[in-house]
Records
---
Amino acid sequence: MLQLSRTNAENPDFIELVKHLDLELAERDGAEHSFYAPFNTISNIKHVVLAYENEKPVGCGAMKEYEPGTMEIKRMYVLPECRGKGIAAEILAELEIWAKELPVTRCILETGHKQPEAIALYKKCGYQVIANYGQYVAVENSVCFEKRIDEG
């Protein structure tokens, strides 16, 4: 049975999952990976959701304030052997619930063309492609998304 837990970036389970995420992204992104590294630090992230299956950490997601009223979804990851079970969608939904409590009106995020599974997840969960924002404006590999969470 899947259990979700709210925590922060100091949680050792989150830190360990992020290590796996970074290794996978380094492999997928190749030479471009060094560009993204400064934007993927976890220090000062106060909103983390961890997914546990039989008390084992199997996935994570986080968010941080991008600007007032907007949270940026970061560090979404599920262990490869646990994929295809809807865990990432549950983590994302819990982050959105938490964002509404803050209160936040929208969530944004960036992923890459080399992560087609992530793109499919975000589209399935109601995220719309937007123009690249912030540090991703001129980055061809980046795909940015937005979801209004104050509607419906």
---
Amino acid sequence: MKSHFTVGDFMTDKVIVAGLHNKISEVMRFFATHKIQHLPVTENDELLGIISLFDVLKLVHEELVSVDCTSMRDIDEKYDMRKLMTEDPIFVEPETTVADALRLLEFGKFQALPVVTENKVVGIITNKDLIKVFAKDVNPPHTSFSIENPGFGI
């Protein structure tokens, strides 16, 4: 793996975020609509926490099998974002090396790292993004090319 790769080279820089005002049902819609698995929670672009698809699935499952909860509205009323999100998540900066990001993901119980600059969320890097690093390393772009004769002819 190339040691000069940084998180900024591979992060997703168009990040969908939630705010503390969002309901659990809205978070579920964010996941489904945008086909994402991790959702930073921000206030004024400042990182407060992160929610994973697994966090939501676990909560909804637990609530729907309980006798106290019968609908998504009940879940929305019972839980706010602070109860669901992981507060003060580990994050990286765009200049963080890919090797350092991999170490954090290897030993942490999470699969994504928010990318922060000056306390503002500027991206997110996930396990899937890091696969791109290895793909480039294992299958580097071809540096040679050929021009074929178009076969003008008879």
